[in-house]
């Protein structure tokens, strides 16, 4: 089986490493815009070889994985559409799904099966150097089959997801975007906003000396790829704005309790701790 990976950053590189680790009878061919990235992917063993041309990398591929920033995906689909073999499977790893599914419907031919994907895994660092063969072990891997996807194609992608150690979850694109906006995209925005607020303060020089694990943990996502973060916001604007509004409302409640010295503060913090520990218990 030949798999073509377009985009060899953290997720694309990790996917290559994970697939090659899990399946010996597999050829992984990669494409990256930067020659240095492509060369490094080969050195690290993320791909067997690379191609410098987008159409050359998908030639003869049984499965094409698009692992680029979201806003680049429509152009890529348009460029490769005429060169995909009949029966080829195309999938992606974008953090938003409704927009990508729409592009696939518009740009890809019906003779291929598109199955949207999103592994709920990552790091605050980006790029091929951060790639990890074990990145997907135990993670939920969202799958959104397109209307023209065959059962055979869906089963094959599900099987590959399981082989890299992830847990496949079939989900509607709109539901996916609404849910991840709350638990993934909103935290990203909050993290960046906190860094922006504190580092712009005239007190930052002194403040930075006191910033410890709490600040580091809460701002971890601000170290992610700016391009990826921007594209997420542009392609899931409605749901992110909805959750930002709800977060502001909740912050206003905490502000009021703190301002009034309310006895409800103790209960609010207690409930938050219990609910988080309950979630951690379910996630184990």
Structure notes:
The structure is a single chain. The protein is an alpha/beta fold and 284 residues long. It folds into two domains: 170 residues, 3-Layer(aba) Sandwich (Rossmann fold), CATH 3.40.50; 108 residues, Orthogonal Bundle (6-phosphogluconate dehydrogenase C-terminal fold). Helix content is 54%, strand content 13%. The protein contains twelve helices and eight strands. The protein is elongated, with a radius of gyration of 21 Å. The mean pLDDT is 95.
What attributes does this structure have?
alpha/beta; single chain; 8 strands; Rossmann fold; 284 residues; 6-phosphogluconate dehydrogenase C-terminal fold; 8-stranded mixed beta sheet; 2 domains
């Amino acid at each position: 089986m030949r798999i073509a990976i377009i985009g060899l950053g953290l997720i694309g590189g990790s996917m290559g490493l994970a697939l090659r680790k899990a399946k010996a009878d597999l050829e992984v061919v990669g494409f990256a815009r930067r020659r240095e990235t492509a060369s490094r992917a080969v050195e690290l063993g993320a791909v067997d070889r690379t191609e410098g041309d987008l159409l050359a990398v998908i030639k003869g591929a049984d499965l094409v994985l698009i692992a680029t920033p979201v806003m680049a995906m429509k152009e890529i689909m348009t460029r490769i559409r005429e060169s995909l073999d009949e029966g080829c499977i195309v999938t992606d790893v974008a953090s938003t799904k409704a927009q990508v599914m729409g592009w696939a419907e518009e740009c890809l031919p019906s003779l291929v099966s598109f199955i949207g994907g999103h592994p709920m895994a990552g790091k605050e660092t980006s790029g091929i150097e951060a790639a990890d063969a074990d990145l997907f072990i135990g993670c939920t891997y969202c799958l959104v089959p397109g209307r023209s996807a065959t059962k055979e194609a869906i089963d094959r992608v599900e099987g590959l997801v399981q082989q890299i150690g992830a847990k496949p979850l079939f989900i509607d694109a709109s539901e996916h975007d609404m849910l991840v906006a709350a638990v993934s995209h909103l935290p990203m925005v909050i993290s960046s906003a906190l860094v922006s607020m504190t580092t712009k303060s005239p007190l930052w020089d002194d403040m930075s000396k006191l910033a410890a694990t709490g600040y580091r943990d809460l701002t971890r996502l601000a170290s992610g790829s700016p391009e990826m973060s921007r594209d997420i916001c542009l392609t899931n604007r409605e749901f992110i704005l909805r959750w930002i509004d709800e977060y502001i409302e909740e912050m206003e409640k905490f502000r009021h309790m703190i301002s009034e010295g309310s006895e409800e503060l103790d209960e609010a913090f207690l409930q938050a701790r219990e609910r988080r520990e309950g979630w951690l218990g379910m996630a184990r």
